[in-house]
Amino acid sequence: MVNYCRSCFQPLKIHNQGFLSIFPSKHDKLTKTLTKLYFKQVNTNHFIKAFESKSALKEFLSFIHYELGNTLEEFKGAIHQEEVPGPFESYSLQTIYEHTFHENTVNIIKNGEFISYLQPIINMDSGDIYGYESLLRVKDHSIFPSQLFEVARKTEMHSILDKKAREIAIESRTNRIPQGIKSFINFLPSTIYNPAHCLKHTFQIVEKYNVDPNDLVFEVVETEKIHDVQHLKSILETYREHGMKVALDDVGAGYSTLDMLSKLRPDYIKIDRMYIQDCHISKDNQTFLLGVMNLAKELGITVLGEGIETKEEFQFLKEIGIDLAQGYFIGKPSPNPSLLLFDKEHRQLAGL
């Protein structure tokens, strides 16, 4: 049996026919369920059953899922073509279940063509384009981004997808974004186990496309799920050692609270949308925003307000001196951005 670190995870091969092995670990309910399905017992901790089609495999897994519910993650299994295989990869039953029922999306993650949509970020003082946030999209638009990332999470392929997203974002600068304009690129800290090793591919891509590292801002997402602050700090330091900038997303939500700013010292922070919405009339939001800005100023951190959708929100943020702005009021994500996307009409509306 071969077990791989999740950072090196490769998608399961769902054969048209073959064998499903399950290792119940002396769990009575699972053992009884496998007996009902006429699995052959190899030993006390190994049951096996042949399947003649993917439909048959789905039926087995559906029944097991119905019987065991959310406990599938606790048990190991494998799919193989030989009844008595050599060394094989084992996965949780939950992972096998998700791969089987999301095979098409898994194939898109593995082999699909992707592009970056770019959403403009402007300098609040001048209204000029400061940078773009890179947002991963499937080229043929066959699946929504939210679905893509959800399946990647369920199938443990988020490391693969996250690495592809970084590569596409860096590549997309070529002939589209001039030097000096920043690219804000999302990354999932939970997929980076050893920064020096896991980010090596990203740094090679930067060199391959001759991108100035100073133009890249790597933006932490899913911050509410991070508990190891030292590990996150080591990731951010690894980016900085290679000449790149770092940002914290969704500041104010979940984990990314103000007390973390002094510990992590990011170059940029992006304020969570909940504090931007109606900021011109919400006293609570105003108190939070002013507190963030005062702390950020002390620490030398650039502040970006994201999710700006109205003239009133924009004008209030400009009045209190926020550094950068992003949102539908300024420009929607597009495959073909323009440096003049924040047009004359919007500049006049915003008082620029």
From TrEMBL:
UniProt cross-references to PROSITE patterns, sorted A to Z: DCD, EAL
The organism's place on the tree of life at top rank: Bacteria
InterPro entries on file: Cyclic-di-GMP_PDE-like (IPR050706), Dev_and_cell_death_domain (IPR013989), EAL_dom (IPR001633), EAL_sf (IPR035919)
Start and end residues of each DCD domain: 297-352
Organism: Metabacillus endolithicus
Gene3D superfamilies for this protein: EAL domain (3.20.20.450)
Name the UniProt record assigns to this protein: EAL domain-containing protein
Pfam families: EAL (PF00563)
Annotated EAL domain residues: 98-347
